[in-house]
Amino acid sequence: MTERLYYEDAYCREFDAKVADCREGKKGWEIILDKTAFYPEGGGQPADQGTLGDAEVLDVKEGGDEVIHLCDRPLEPGSTVHGKLDWDRRFGFMQQHSGEHIFSGIVHRTFGYDNIGFHMGKDFVTVDFSGMLSEDDIARVERESNEAVFSDRKILAEYPSSEELEKLDYRSKKELEGQVRIVTIPGSDVCACCGTHVKRTGEIGPIKAVASEHYKSGIRINLQIGWKALEDYDRKHKNTREISALLSVPPEETAEAVKKLQEQLQELKAANVALRQKELDRLVDEVEEGTDRVIRFEEDLNPVEVRLLADRLAKKARFAAVFSGNDQDGYKYVLCSSQIDVAALGKKFNEALNGRGGGRNPMVQGSVAADRRKIEKFLSPAGQEEEKRK
């Protein structure tokens, strides 16, 4: 049985322990100590990392009454080893876990929703609740959560007796057996929890809800807590400063400046569409009614414009082909006709000129990696006669 020092003192960063067992596992060496300050993954909190002597602790997991340390090298059973936690990592998890308790406790107290999911990820803490919250609701909970942080309340972790537990109103994510550890944050939360926590709420730092989305019948909220929240603020502050400089407006006016920029962009897009439509009209007007075939090469038509131009040209010509691109990068194409079998023509065209695509009469489309000269030769009357003779 491993003595769990993290329950006696969550701030224990280094310790000495005896190696009780060492065995080779699938992912490294599994080491069991007589006592440990390394927290195993559980309750939504990731496992600690650090070192045991010269061995790197890669992961920590529960093994019944034992704590199993997954290491990159073996340790001698019976020897004494010095353990050292990656304290910055652990303390960050303590901040995040305590902050999540405050946020979830206030949601439960105010709206009656249960926390049905909790995960400390690389970028943020994810919490799932059993009911919906509006943006104003989330802002209210966030405000009250930070008030609890600023109040610097003491966080308690206790093991009440079974009689005391029956009288206690506390949150729990699952059915519990045996002795129950209750974490209490006065005014915010009372919850059964096996994780590590800071001593006082003031150590948590800022709590910020950065995103939310509908999840099942409730809501999923992403939280930034403690140092993570400050890192997130630094990134966003830097981005805002850069956007401010690019738009030549104060940081607090960037949103309004972007709105105006979007409006101008929409106006330019509309003007551009009108100009391109006039250009398509001009290209169509250049073709006489009853023309046998027309083949157009343009540099920068988008796929919709290629189809539109080919369709309009085919109303004036027996056969129309439109290509957009260049010899170096290849062409997007549309072949269109109501009088000839362009489906069969397109298949032969792709086979002969390294093309891809298809469709049904009266229009086929695709892309082709061939130069303009070869394309024009294939589609010319002489080229078509040659294909018939094959």
UniProtKB/TrEMBL annotation:
Q: Give GO BP annotations, semicolon-separated.
A: alanyl-tRNA aminoacylation
Cofactors per UniProt? Zn(2+)
A Pfam family of the record is DHHA1
> A cellular component term (GO) from this record?
cytoplasm
Subcellular location(s) per record: Cytoplasm
In its keyword annotation, does this UniProt entry include Metal-binding? Answer: yes
Top-level taxonomic group: Bacteria
MF terms in GO:
alanine-tRNA ligase activity; aminoacyl-tRNA deacylase activity; ATP binding; metal ion binding; nucleic acid binding
Q: Which UniProt keywords apply?
A: Coiled coil, Metal-binding, Zinc
Looking at the record, the residues that make up the Alanyl-transfer RNA synthetases family profile domain are 1-220
Q: What PROSITE patterns does the database record attribute to this sequence?
A: AA_TRNA_LIGASE_II_ALA (PS50860)
Instruction: Using the record for this protein, list the coiled-coil segments as residue ranges, or answer none.
Output: 258-300
Q: What is this protein called?
A: Alanyl-tRNA editing protein
Give the species.
Candidatus Eisenbergiella merdipullorum
Taxonomic lineage of the native organism: Bacteria, Bacillati, Bacillota, Clostridia, Lachnospirales
